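Fold it.
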Amino acid sequence: MRVSLGGVEVPLEAEALEPVEGGFRLLGKEVRVYSPFPARAFFRHGWQSWSLTAWVDLREAKRPLFPEARRPQADDPFLLGSSAWWGSGVGALKGSGDQVLLLGALGVGARVRGEEDLLLGRYADGEGEWFLAYGGEAEVFAAYSRLLPGRLPGRPPRVFCTWYSHYTGISEALLLALLEEIGDYPFEVFQVDDGWQRALGDWEANEKFPRGMAFLAEAIRRKGLRPGLWLAPFLVTADSPLYRKRPEWVLRDQEGRPLPAGFNWGKPLLALDAGKEEVVEFAVELLRKAMGWGYDYLKLDFLYAAALPGAEGERRYREALGRLRQVAEGAYLLFCGAPVLASLGLADGLRVGPDVAPYWDNEDRSHFLADPTGPGLKNALRASLHRLWLSENVHVDPDVAYFRTRFNLLRPEEMRLQEGLAHLTGFKATSDPPSWLLPEERARLLAFLSQEVPVRRLSPYRLQVGEEVLDYACVL
């Protein structure tokens, strides 16, 4: 069959067709849309927060795979393993002009392949609905986002996060001192990141927090801030007490072997099987415990573990995270390392790129290992910039902004790029302790948190932030 999109005839193969605002709704386990122009670039949408998301050149061969141990925490393993360009849930083609042909899934568990003359959409399990549109890039992505679930609880928060200054080296004494430091700044959330717990799966305060996490939450609240806490509810390691106690909870392959879930903290990661009721109930009780301590801003990290091995697990993921959403209805949930499209309607905030870092790029990792998902400002900016179209569905979190020159290899103009995205999305966060800042840096942080700066998008890769024009072409 053929449809007319923006005056252009587009051949396609699908089971059903219905016109909707901005395009057409299609039905099928697999649909094929033939491009009316020779495509040069494919919008490759990564599976989860840290996955490569960018326009890729179809004329260039796909790069070799990076180390196998990291693949499960980097992207849908199927997307990485294929020699063709596949994306998660949505894909688009662009030719020599400005017009874009977009095919996006309206359900979970879908992938889209891009070729010079074809968009191939396929659900991993059963049939589902699709959205097809042709037009300007901003218009077609906006039309697609309007058909996706959304949850926007007011404006995004202003967050102090402990991770990018102290990483796991936090303690009760250190955080109490930090609370005193940030008292003159208009933060709303003080988020305690990784380093407070005994082990993955053993979610109790370690010896560095002798008075426990409820004590710390109360100390945070006395300062007029909302207590936040980092959790990775579906992640475990082979040396954790939970694994030794409940080995049957671990996600396994068809031969009964634990399914690899990545590599971090110097050790292999394993996933808890979110298809098991006992595992979901464990995660539900974990959130209840954290909220009982007084934390109502929860950063749920490494969430891809609940959906492994990829698109096939997204329905299981959505059911499990739906249960967590119900029990934490009064809390702000920030999803990180999360399957992006499957998280919409459940997350309040969503990390949309890899971790930032106080350097532009880890060239050994990005180039020698061909890993575009690791920490670094360039990787974070690239993915975040290409997911701004989700801003009407969820609070888009581009990660923290830097203001310090101490312990920092970033140039001022690079830090300004991240700051610009924070102004655009409204999600303003940092990990910079005021004691690390020079007087002019403290003034800039205060202005960042307290001022509403007008932002205008001049083009897909240029923003006007106040009087300043920021050019993001360097991340392409």
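The radius of gyration is 22 Å.
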